[in-house]
Automatic annotation (TrEMBL), chain A:
Belongs to the ABC transporter superfamily. Keywords: Amino-acid transport, ATP-binding, Nucleotide-binding, Transport. PROSITE patterns: ABC_TRANSPORTER_1, ABC_TRANSPORTER_2. One of its GO terms (biological process) is amino acid transport. GO terms for cellular component: membrane protein complex. This is ABC transporter ATPase. Residues 4-231 form the ABC transporter domain. GO terms for molecular function: ATP binding; ATP hydrolysis activity; transmembrane transporter activity. PANTHER family: ABC TRANSPORTER ATP-BINDING PROTEIN MG467-RELATED, LIPOPROTEIN-RELEASING SYSTEM ATP-BINDING PROTEIN LOLD. Transmembrane segments: none annotated.
TrEMBL record, chain B:
GO terms for cellular component: plasma membrane. It is a multi-pass membrane protein. Keywords: Cell membrane, Coiled coil, Membrane, Transmembrane, Transmembrane helix. It is found in: Cell membrane. It holds the Pfam family FtsX. It comes from the Bacteria. Residues 22-177, 499-687 form the MacB-like periplasmic core domain. This is Antimicrobial peptide ABC transporter permease. The chain crosses the membrane at residues 16-36, 327-350, 378-401, 421-445, 498-518, 725-747, 781-803, 815-839.
Length: 233, 857
């Protein structure tokens, strides 16, 4: 069943005289509980569509139906509400609050939703049970990204959106992070979307959507995804 | 243009808000500094200009026997003196038999020139000009007739008012001095052509020294020079006085000399005849004694005594100088505060600016620009902002504040406004402003330029967060909710911003409180003195020591409540080598009754004091000036030359004037003579102005009194003093408010841009707009609350400090800040916090979170 339906979605930026088309009539679907990878080179329009899916931005045209509702026409307030309860975000640069401890960074997210998970437990799950009282500056990049994932998961969202989560990480730590995201889909049955420009990662996905030059170029389903553990790049 | 210069201008255009903020803050600092500093001198300059232009005399001499041409010549024997004799007399006239100071007008006089407010000077013998106060306070109009009482001894009874004038002899419109006619207090002055006054000789001699006019009339050097001149004048008038007495005596006693000659001849004849008729001898004797009494009478009437006056004795003259000093005292405190805050704000703003341009600086460095070339970019930015701020601030401040204050004074004072541009202040402010802007920029750029280009192009490694002290207090920390924890952690992380915000808010609160405090405290000295301390409403000076007539008149008055008789004297007190003049010495005829008229309350323990069999009670200010404590001995000399010493048995709370209280027996012991009743203290229920004048008139006519003064009038003088400051205070309140607002706004802006990534993150997490705003504003609220509370404390301290600076030697200003001050200060700060919150809310609502989170900066 399609959890996400993007139909003819376009996003244009007006830069003075010229118009930049970041997304040009994109259409694709992603299923509930699946792990979907969006693949494409830099500047293709991946982040743009992910931000729209996450309610951080609205499309210029088209429909973005999530769990049966079109969020394209949402007001700012509705978008905020949507982000609050339904979405977990993971960025390339972890965007942790430097002045809050690991635990507090997670609590920051869990404190605003009613059915949040226990912050300490989520942190234990991502393997940071012994770093609860550390500040971000005291953690490595991989650890910081794991805190960011814990923060996204703690809200117990339906949809986990990850924009180049391993972009700033080395091979090993990148793998650990991807495993966590994989688990979120496989074990917790969250719908997970991961953006990457690393085509090797296509193997881990249930579905791969290739975007280039603002357009969807191909959509492939992968009946037998390879676990991250076994992927080499 | 070189690329770097281009970059500078683009930078200014790009961060207009910040640029303007620096200009604004520097401008405010300079404006208050220059403005307030210039106001005191401007006031004094204006008084000086006025008295020089209108040729105010330096010394005035009054004589019991009048002045002739001979006296003018005598006075002019003193080097540099120019003397003019004028007719002058206190008379009664007008609607309610007002006491009027009447001068004989001579068009050729050069001293104490009148300046016309309206109409013209007298052109014929039926015309008169009146004090402008007669128009403003007693509503006389041009063309109206004014009638004088017979006792005025004028050629006509009525004169037509043809002009209203100001005189340099009366610089302060709140008072005109006191007189022995009418109700005892002079209402206004007037000038009729001199020939209209039936006086055998001029009664007033004005003396002016043109050489002294270049000195500031309030300066020490002027006062010293004048007292030297008075000394010389006294010397020449010593012999002149005796001479004048003798001439007059001889003239008046002409007939008596003839009778004496006859009498002596008769005596001689009788003796020559060898007749010793008892009857004849007795007759001769009685005639001789009659003659002697007549002679003595004439001698007394022709005895010449002089009264000496200098400018400082003119009504209101000294007080005006003191209010200039008071403004100057304020000037020492307020602007310093402003500059301090301005410096800190500039520092943070430029720090932030340079921080944001790290990558740019790195690029320039990598391109091979020298450190100096890059630094110049930022230094110029700071320099331009600082200069623009200083120039605008100095000109606006120098023009606006003194003019405003002067124009207020001009409503009641005949001032010629002088507002020089104070170049020295301008230079000082430029120096300070440049230190705060360019200096701040230099410090920041210096530390930044030390880093290598590659380091600069990378984002600054985040300041490592630390646990705050509060976290270690586990029970407290655990009880806080998540938001509170976050706010506290943030507050302590950005310590400098925390301190600056508190400083800005506390400073504004304190300055506003101080503005109110100065006014309240000055007012309080009068209101407390004349309600708590002096419970009487009137002081009636008796002609003799018999009060029965006066009491009779008082008892007929509806408002009369009670009276007590005292011996009131004036004198000076000295101790430990210090001396205080103009002491009121009160010896009540009944110790017990005094309690109902004067509250004697110990400054040490707040207990009521009573008068002892020996020893005296002194008022607070005098005791502190003499540096005496209870048990010390003081020496007193009264104006009628009684002297004596006594122990201090108590020091009593008192706000206005100097008082010494002692019992009848203590008086006897101290001066070796009995105290004599000469004054009544009178309690009255509330009277209106008319009732007061009527009672004073009645007492003068039928009560055998010399005059009546009311405490309301004294309180009025103090009220005027405090209200004359009210505009200055209002200006301060406004400026302080603006300052606090700019500080809060600017710091919040910096805070938001520093933490835009953090704020975008929580937006992405799904915080509602309100929550996002509160995330940052919560800190402002805490800081505002702390700032306001700190401000209360600082405000009280600042008020106390300024009051001490501004205190005159006669008055104690009790530190008083009414709740209105607290409410206004608090309300303004809360208002600012709310405005800043709303502005921040708008800004955060429109923050592009995607953009903010995109790159790794
Ligand atoms: N806020 C914006 N304003 C203008 N152009 C933008 C904006 N955001 C993205 N773009 C442009 O849209 C295109 C797609 O960008 P993006 O979605 O970030 O690509 P990517 O696939 O690398 O994530 C790029 O050409 C980018 O320059
Ligand atoms: Mg991208």
């Amino acid at each position: 069943m399609a959890y996400i339906e993007v139909i003819n979605e376009s996003k244009r930026y007006q830069m003075g005289e010229t118009t930049i088309v970041a997304n040009d009539k994109l259409s694709f679907e992603a299923n509930q509980g699946d792990l979907t990878v969006i693949l494409g080179p830099s500047g293709a329009g991946k982040s743009t569509v992910l931000n729209i899916l996450g309610g951080m931005d609205s499309p210029s045209d088209g429909e973005v139906i999530i769990d049966g509702t079109d969020i394209a026409k949402y007001s700012d307030k509705q978008l905020t509400q949507f982000r609050r309860t339904d979405i977990g975000f993971v960025f390339q640069f972890y965007n942790l609050i430097p002045n809050l401890t690991t635990r507090e960074n997670v609590e920051l997210a869990s404190s605003i939703v009613p059915d949040a998970l226990d912050a300490d437990q989520v942190l234990k799950d991502v393997g940071l049970g012994d770093r609860l009282d550390n500040f971000p500056s005291q953690l490595s990049g991989g650890e910081q990204q794991r805190v960011a994932i814990a923060r996204a998961l703690a809200k117990n969202p339906k949809l986990l959106l990850c924009d180049e989560p391993t972009g700033a990480l080395d091979y090993e730590t990148g793998k650990q992070v991807l495993t966590l995201l994989e688990d979120a889909s496989r074990k917790d049955h969250k719908t997970v979307l991961i953006i990457t420009h690393n085509s090797a990662l296509a193997k881990m996905a249930d579905r791969v959507i290739r975007i280039n030059d603002a357009k969807v170029r191909s959509i492939e389903d992968n009946p037998n995804p390879t676990p991250v553990e076994e992927i080499e790049w | 243009m070189k690329p770097l210069t281009k970059n500078l201008w683009r930078g200014i255009r790009g961060s207009m808000g910040r640029f303007i903020a620096i200009i604004l803050i520097i401008m405010l600092g300079v404006l208050t500094y220059v403005g307030v500093k210039a106001t005191g001198p401007a006031l004094k300059d204006s008084v000086n200009q006025t008295v020089t232009n209108l040729h105010l005399s330096d010394v005035q001499i009054m004589s019991t026997t009048g002045f002739t041409k001979q006296d003018v010549k005598t006075a002019e024997k003193v080097a540099g003196a120019k003397a003019e004799a004028v007719k002058f007399k206190y008379v009664t006239g007008g609607k309610d038999s007002y006491a009027i100071a009447l001068y004989g007008y001579q068009h050729n006089l050069t001293e104490n020139k009148l300046s016309l407010r309206s109409g013209h000077l007298p052109k014929n013998n039926h015309q008169i000009v009146l004090d402008y106060r007669a128009h403003s306070k007693y509503s006389y109009k041009l063309g109206q007739k004014i009638k004088f009482d017979k006792s005025a001894e004028l050629k006509h009874r009525t004169y037509t008012v043809v002009g209203f004038v100001d005189s340099p002899s009366y610089v302060d419109n709140t008072e005109r001095g006191s007189a022995n006619v009418g109700d005892g207090s002079v209402k206004f002055f007037a000038e009729v052509p001199a020939s209209q006054m039936n006086l055998s000789a001029a009664t007033l001699l004005n003396v002016r020294f043109s050489k002294l006019q270049s000195r500031d009339t309030y300066s020490h050097s002027y006062k010293e020079a004048v007292s030297a001149k008075v000394k010389s004048l006294k010397k020449v008038f010593k012999t002149r006085g005796a001479e004048r007495s003798k001439t007059l005596y001889n003239k008046n006693a002409g007939e008596l000399t003839a009778s004496q000659d006859k009498l002596t001849a008769a005596k001689n004849q009788l003796m020559a005849m060898g007749m010793t008729s008892k009857q004849a001898t007795a007759q001769l004797k009685s005639e001789q004694s009659q003659l002697d009494t007549a002679k003595a009478k004439i001698k007394k009437a022709t005895k010449t005594t002089y009264t000496w006056q200098t400018r400082s004795d003119l009504p209101g003259f000294t007080a005006l100088g003191q209010s200039a000093d008071r403004i100057a005292a304020i000037a020492n405190v307020f602007p310093v505060f402003f500059f301090l805050v301005a410096a800190l704000i500039t520092f943070t703003t430029i720090t932030r600016m340079v921080e944001e341009a790290r990558a740019q600086i790195g690029t320039f460095k990598a391109l091979g620009y020298s450190k100096m070339a890059i630094a110049r970019n930022y230094l110029s930015y700071a320099f331009i902002a600082g200069m623009i701020g200083t120039i605008i601030g100095a000109f606006v401040g120098n023009i606006s504040l003194p003019r405003l204050v002067l124009s207020l004074y001009q409503n009641c004072i005949p001032l010629i406004a002088v507002d020089k541009f104070q170049w020295s202040l301008f230079v000082i402010s430029i120096i300070i402003a440049l230190i705060t802007t360019v200096g701040a920029a230099a410090i920041v750029v210096r530390s930044e330029l030390k880093e290598k280009p590659s380091e600069l192009m990378r984002p600054r490694s985040p300041k490592s967060a630390k646990r705050i002290l509060m976290e270690r207090i586990k029970p407290l920390w655990r009880r806080m909710n998540f938001n509170q924890k976050v706010s506290y952690r943030n507050l302590f992380r950005y310590k400098s911003r925390m301190f600056m915000t508190i400083l800005g808010i506390a400073g504004g609160t304190a300055l506003i409180l101080t503005g109110f405090g100065i006014q309240n405290s000055i007012g309080a000295s009068g209101s407390r003195q004349y309600s708590e301390i002096a419970k009487y409403q009137a002081v009636v000076r008796l002609n003799g020591s018999n009060s029965s007539q006066a009491v009779k008149v008082l008892k007929q008055d509806k408002q009369y409540k009670s009276q007590t008789a005292i011996d009131a004297n004036v004198g000076n007190v000295s101790a430990h080598g210090h001396k205080v003049d103009d002491i009121n010495i009160y010896a009540p005829s009944s110790k017990n009754q005094l309690k109902n008229f004067v509250k004697l309350i110990s400054t040490d323990n707040g207990k009521n004091l009573s008068l002892k069999k020996s020893g005296v009670v002194l008022s607070e200010k005098m005791a502190s000036q003499l540096k005496v404590k209870v048990g010390d001995t003081i020496r007193v000399k009264t104006t009628d030359n009684h002297t004596g010493t006594a122990k201090v048995t108590g020091i009593t709370e008192n706000f206005v004037g100097h008082y010494m209280y002692l019992s009848q027996s203590a008086y006897q012991k101290m001066f070796g003579t009995r105290a004599k009743t000469n004054t009544l203290l009178v309690r009255l229920s509330h009277q209106n102005q008319h009732q007061r004048e009527k009672l004073a008139n009645q007492l003068m006519k039928h009560g055998d009194t010399m005059g009546t003064s009311y405490t309301v009038d004294q309180q009025q003088t103090i009220t005027t003093m405090s209200s004359s400051l009210s505009t200055v205070v209002l200006i301060f309140i406004l400026l302080s408010g603006v300052l606090s607002f700019v500080v809060l706004y600017n710091l919040t802006n910096i805070n938001v841009s520093e933490r835009i990534r953090e704020l975008s993150t929580i937006k992405v997490l799904g915080f509602y707009d309100k929550e996002v705003t509160m995330y940052i504003v919560r800190e402002n609220i805490m800081l505002t609350v702390i700032g306001i509370i700190v401000g209360y404390g600082v405000g009280n301290a600042l008020t106390a400090y300024i009051l001490r600076q501004a205190a005159t030697d006669q008055i104690i200003f009790p530190l008083t800040i009414h709740w209105v001050g607290y409410v206004v200060a608090t309300a303004l700060m809360v208002l600012f916090t709310v405005i800043v919150m709303l502005v921040t809310h708008r800004r955060l609502k429109h923050v592009d979170m995607v953009e903010a989170l995109k790159s790794n900066e």
